[in-house]
Amino acid sequence: MLIVMNSQASEENINKVVDFIKQKGFDAHVSKGEDHTVIGAVGRKVIDKRDIELLDGVKEVIRITSPYKLVSRVFKGEDTIIEIKDVKIGGNNIAMIAGPCTVESYDQMDATAEKLSECGVKLLRGGAFKPRTSPYAFQGLGEEGLKILREVANKYNMLVTSEVMEVSQIPMFLKYVDILQVGARNMQNFNLLKSLGEIRKPVLLKRGLSATIEELLMSAEYIMAGGNREIILCERGIRTFEHMTRNTLDISAIPVIQKISHLPIIVDPSHATGLRDKVAPMSKAAIAAGADGLIIEVHNSPETALCDGAQSLYPHDFAILFDELKQLAKVIKKHF
Amino acid sequence: MLIVMNSQASEENINKVVDFIKQKGFDAHVSKGEDHTVIGAVGRKVIDKRDIELLDGVKEVIRITSPYKLVSRVFKGEDTIIEIKDVKIGGNNIAMIAGPCTVESYDQMDATAEKLSECGVKLLRGGAFKPRTSPYAFQGLGEEGLKILREVANKYNMLVTSEVMEVSQIPMFLKYVDILQVGARNMQNFNLLKSLGEIRKPVLLKRGLSATIEELLMSAEYIMAGGNREIILCERGIRTFEHMTRNTLDISAIPVIQKISHLPIIVDPSHATGLRDKVAPMSKAAIAAGADGLIIEVHNSPETALCDGAQSLYPHDFAILFDELKQLAKVIKKHF
Amino acid sequence: MLIVMNSQASEENINKVVDFIKQKGFDAHVSKGEDHTVIGAVGRKVIDKRDIELLDGVKEVIRITSPYKLVSRVFKGEDTIIEIKDVKIGGNNIAMIAGPCTVESYDQMDATAEKLSECGVKLLRGGAFKPRTSPYAFQGLGEEGLKILREVANKYNMLVTSEVMEVSQIPMFLKYVDILQVGARNMQNFNLLKSLGEIRKPVLLKRGLSATIEELLMSAEYIMAGGNREIILCERGIRTFEHMTRNTLDISAIPVIQKISHLPIIVDPSHATGLRDKVAPMSKAAIAAGADGLIIEVHNSPETALCDGAQSLYPHDFAILFDELKQLAKVIKKHF
Amino acid sequence: MLIVMNSQASEENINKVVDFIKQKGFDAHVSKGEDHTVIGAVGRKVIDKRDIELLDGVKEVIRITSPYKLVSRVFKGEDTIIEIKDVKIGGNNIAMIAGPCTVESYDQMDATAEKLSECGVKLLRGGAFKPRTSPYAFQGLGEEGLKILREVANKYNMLVTSEVMEVSQIPMFLKYVDILQVGARNMQNFNLLKSLGEIRKPVLLKRGLSATIEELLMSAEYIMAGGNREIILCERGIRTFEHMTRNTLDISAIPVIQKISHLPIIVDPSHATGLRDKVAPMSKAAIAAGADGLIIEVHNSPETALCDGAQSLYPHDFAILFDELKQLAKVIKKHF
User: I need a surface site. Which of A1, A86, B149, D80 has the fewest CB within 10 A?
Assistant: First the structure.
């Protein structure tokens, strides 16, 4: 931590700061510049930097160690590659996760999975617990939905992911799914993150609607600190002043994260845009920018879907898109 | 719901839309204008408007009924006034809630509450369960903290509020606190909101970091739909591009909410700004703009606080501020 | 325009609204629904919708005609393709505009243009007038810079674009450049837009830092209203709370604009990200999403550049990138 | 400037950075910490910090001197108080600037100014050049409008302010107005700022729609660098995701700016909210937070105003508001 003093700070001001940080368990190195005295505070303690900023004569306090460690490239130079059976995610391996917003019935899942499987998709998604803004809307099938998901996946030799909402649901999810998904609204549900750190299955962690990239990485750190090293990050759009799309998909998060973290980063174009006709161009953009995967909503009959039909692709359109995506991937030397 | 067709929409397009909405359970009224045909869809069903927007020839779909009802001024014209013992919140009664970020010990709470009580504060705050970004930071005293809070409050004849994190904690909170607080990160934790709708104690609901005012009202609707009509809304800053303050306190949310909802709206200047010296001016701004209350962090010894000391007021400074706030309130014909 | 009345609006309220809009020159069509009366206001007049919103009993006023006309797909169904000599921009023709931030000298431009020309670039960029945040920084060569730009372009048989800052500069620019560029800060300089509507050379219009897509289109409408139909729109990043990149490049603006407007939309990845190593991934994303072109900063010696060297590509890296972009374009059936 | 190296940076990396900054004209002080080597770069040169960030082994480059100097409290400790005849702005003197959006006619200005003058308002506002989003809307009376403004002001012994749009208009404005206003869209029109630095009349500088506080101060620095020390800053709302108000008025900008700058900061509640009924609460909030003034739209007949009638106060309502504001000011020990 570096403490920059005002150009007008007195000797006394400087001494008080030095005393303060020593008392908090840090070593202090004072270096006087032409304009500013800079105090380096060295130590491993946690401190709220605002406590120092409020001391007299302090201009600015600068944290120079990242708040996250385990998730950073400094800690681990090479890409994390997550392997589940014959599927790899990360490095040059792009993951395609597809399926409906919600598990509605065995037939719906079976029809959708069959189509997806024919295209070569190996990762199936589907929600079982749906928190909805209206208390009267369809709330998901619950555990029954997870069972259907598993059954259908087994039939087509696929892996499954579904969103876990609460700590108490984790054991149930472990029985049925291969990847546990944390939704955007739960990105900073630290109890949930801590519990997911203790399991040994991959976690798909979505960026919150107004979370910075640093905050996303800190949430991932929470999981890794518990010992679970298999985390897939997911960009799904941030809230901005532009309202022609539901959210603004932050494609630049892909290269930014890939530079500072070793974890795979995938993209959810369905929730980010909220409209079917924007899913294809944004999927292509994500792959071209180097994303490690996509999670796309596909429904066998979007017009009768109980949830998010408007942003779900028809299986036929998905097949065409997937084909184009494979060609794009080849250009940038990656593959699905 | 109004469906505006493109100026170039064909008869066939129009008929398809009419058929679609009838099939979804709505009545349709077609009205042809000079440029645009407008179709009014009348009915009580829930429908995803994007499903209609994707039909050919549709320019725009406009929802004309608010998504919230019980919380609106249309539903209830006069201000909701929440009464707990001799304390009133709402109407011309401004509430002052004060106390430390976290309950650290009996002595700390006792020392702080004594000072606050001397100033005439009747509502005491203090966190018992603290979700922290770092797993190594102080996580709160848990139920022990709630007990201390209750004991100290009883000693000084005060009421207490504390943040509840999970559905499972509700029964415990009901034993100790007078107002259950929902934090910004839980504003859309619909399971929690639903459960709080079933209790009969007031709920203090904070606006999410990037939540719109409409979303805040929809979350309040969730609680009211369950039968709990005692909700206090709380503005606590939104995330913007400006970073000289932690968040941007949206003072205009006060008059906006007071126009469209009957619920009281209070302001949290401590979390919004994150720095002690900004708490006073923003508290004054909130009261002058007509806020129904404030929730302010005060600590008997901020420099040794385990959490958020940098944004906590000294009891002495709080006393001066409270005095000024009372004078400001008088000018706008309200009172603490 | 549709005026939705409150469910509690009286007959008198409705009549007053009808009188008001008639007096403003509109026809009124009243249609009574179950909950709400809706008044359709038909006419060609300009009216500030807030004037109606303030009348008693009015719930909401909804504009149903777009504020822009000439730039919309409704006005012109097929893509606008801008032709300058042998270069086409729009439709399936992707434009590559490259060059340094600023024209520094003949030698610098000559060295850079030579490299670009070898790669097949036909459109050269370079600033002559540089508004800088510091009054002591390099302010550009002025007209001398435009002369160099023209001379070098002629040598390599290229076309040129440069940013015009003020109405008074337009005649000078017409002498030297093929495309006049309007910077993000001038997107709503209406005097400048009006004057550019009167010329007959293409205009490259950049989206403002916090401009909505609708505002960008309205600015383009300003130019088209003057009779100049050759406008190239440019997405260059918007301001959000994320600060790991200078701005957030809104890639979804590409498909959004292509659906509602016939004008070509290109992307500036250099200014959006502000860092060299993010330019390649974001360029690829833009092309994959269907952008009609790119404008990229390339400098023959970035480390000695007088301006924005940090976001300028080396000619060698640009050549590799351009090659990849051509392959990506092929996949989505477009070409440079 | 401090350059923080990665924990894994090599000796060679460090030496290259030292060479680089020396070559750019800085002195280098290397200080090796436990985790990180920090290099202090001391000197007066201007350098793009991204150029250093791109060097191998560099983790972060931190600017420790503010980009602005003359406008800062460090440069001048006491409040700047601007005096024009018998009017003072700054310190404990709150300024009230009021008047219509646009000068429409002599009679309109006379009627409005008469009412304002009766309330004790000494500063009259009115636009003469109106850049409008629609080319068909009223564009202002031009110089004729300035003449009317001056004439009416003289009749009632008032001072006037009006918005200057271009460098070429400055001499004309100097003939008629007492304070030259720079609009939000021109906050970074550096040519205009530079020219305003050369005059000797006060400038009212509005914060851009998406400008940070730091950028606002840098624009003020531009004017001060030219020698004009009389600048009034103005907060007028920033663009956020909330759309129930036109913009989000950033009230916290008041105490933030007052801490770091000596210049007066006033607030424009009319443009920020865009609706008449929000002007009063936000004006009160601004004064209570310590603003040095307000600029409010008042029109003798808002319903027939050619521009922004919806956000203009009736003279009668203004009189009541002004009275309340005076009482609020007294509470915080300031006065109009």
Answer: A86
Buried b (16+ CB within 10 A) or exposed e, C88-102: ebbeebbbbbbbbbb
What are C9's two structure tokens? 């609006």
Asked which of A69-73, A231-235, D160-164 is least confident by mean pLDDT, the reply is A69-73
Nearest by CB to A38, which of D2, D7, D74? D2
From C33, C240, C243, residue closest to B42, measured CB to CB: C33
Neighboring chains of A (3 or more beta-carbon pairs < 8 A):
B, C, D
**For chain C, what are the domain ranges?**
2-62, 82-331
Task: Yes or no: say if B157 and B184 are a contact pair by the CB < 8 Å rule.
Answer: no
Residue A304: pLDDT band by 50, 70, 90 thresholds?
confident
Question: pLDDT tens digits, residue range B125-134?
Answer: 999 987 766 6
**Is residue A300 predicted with pLDDT exceeding 70?**
yes
Select from D8, D37, D38, D44 the residue whose CB has the most chain A CBs within 10 Å, as the one to mutate to test that interface.
Answer: D38
Distance separating alpha carbons of residues D107 and A133, to the nearest angstrom: 54
Whether pLDDT at D34 is above 70: no
Residue C232 Cα, gap to closest chain B Cα (Å): 25
For chain B, the chains sharing at least 3 beta-carbon pairs closer than 8 angstroms are: A, C, D
Question: What's the predicted TM-score (pTM) here?
Answer: 0.90
* pLDDT for the residue B292: 98
Could you read off the pLDDT of C235-284 as tens digits, one per residue?
999 999 998 898 999 999 999 999 999 999 999 999 888 888 899 999 99
Fold of C2-62: Alpha-Beta Plaits (3.30.70)
In C, what residues contact B, Cβ < 8 A?
A: 2, 4, 6-8, 29, 31, 33-36, 38, 40, 42, 59-60, 62, 64-65, 74, 239-241, 243
Return the CATH number of A82-331, one of 3.50.30.10, 3.20.20.70, 3.40.50.20, 1.20.1090.10: 3.20.20.70
Amino acid A136: pLDDT: 59
- Facing B251 at nearest CB: one of D213, D249, D327: D249
Query: What is the per-residue DSSP string for B79-103?
Result: PP-EEETTEEEBTTB-EEEEE-SB-
Query: Which candidate, A66, A70, A17, C310, places its Cα nearest to that of D4?
Result: A66
B140 torsion bin: left (phi>0), alpha (psi -120 to 50), beta (else): left
CA atoms of C323 and C119, how far apart (whole Å): 9
CA separation, residue A301 to residues A188, A277, A319, D110 (Å): 34, 16, 15, 67
Is the pLDDT score of D8 beyond 90?
Answer: no
Residue D159 has pLDDT above 80, yes or no: yes
Q: Encode pLDDT of D175-221 as tens digits.
A: 999 999 999 999 999 889 999 999 999 999 999 999 999 999 999 99
Task: State the Cα–Cα distance between residues C162 and D186, nearest whole angstrom.
Answer: 21
